[in-house]
């Protein structure tokens, strides 16, 4: 009887160890994937920031050109910038 209990106990311990190793591998893989995704998102944010800076620079240039040409009415008009997600 004691032999059967210790065999069951050893099987439970082995199962727990296997489950722990499997969970540890899962966590390690998830951390690697999350780090890669984080890197991609950071690159995307940086690219969007560069594009926004370029658009702002062009807008400022156009505004200055309009002022030099005596077109000041445009300065009072609201400027709406649509993103490509808006259907462009």
Automatic annotation (TrEMBL):
Pfam families: Zein-binding (PF04576). Residues 7-50 form the GTD-binding domain. One of its GO terms (cellular component) is membrane. One of its GO terms (molecular function) is myosin XI tail binding. It is found in: Membrane. Coiled coil: none annotated. InterPro entries: GTD-bd. The keyword Membrane applies. Keywords: Membrane, Transmembrane, Transmembrane helix. This is GTD-binding domain-containing protein. It comes from Aegilops tauschii subsp. strangulata.
